[in-house]
Design brief:
alpha/beta; three-stranded parallel sheet; 2 helices
């Protein structure tokens, strides 16, 4: 992320369950950003696999909705 100061910045990522979105979220969390995601409604409220694999389930605030 270079010279950007991301500490305590609020960042919304759409598509966080994908390969790129989940890795972007991981990097932003490591830089100190507050990461939010808008997920399409899922059966059973399951956390996306990529987020679980990267250990982001407690680091990212998820909101379920539909655009």
């Amino acid at each position: 992320m270079g010279s950007l100061d991301l500490l305590d910045k609020n960042i919304l990522i759409t598509g966080i369950s994908g390969f790129v979105g989940s890795r972007m979220a991981k990097r932003l969390v490591e830089e100190g950003a507050n990461v939010f995601d808008l997920l399409r409604r899922r059966g059973g409220g399951k956390v996306p696999h990529n987020m679980l694999r990267l250990g982001l389930e407690k680091e990212v605030r998820l909101a379920e909705d539909d655009l």
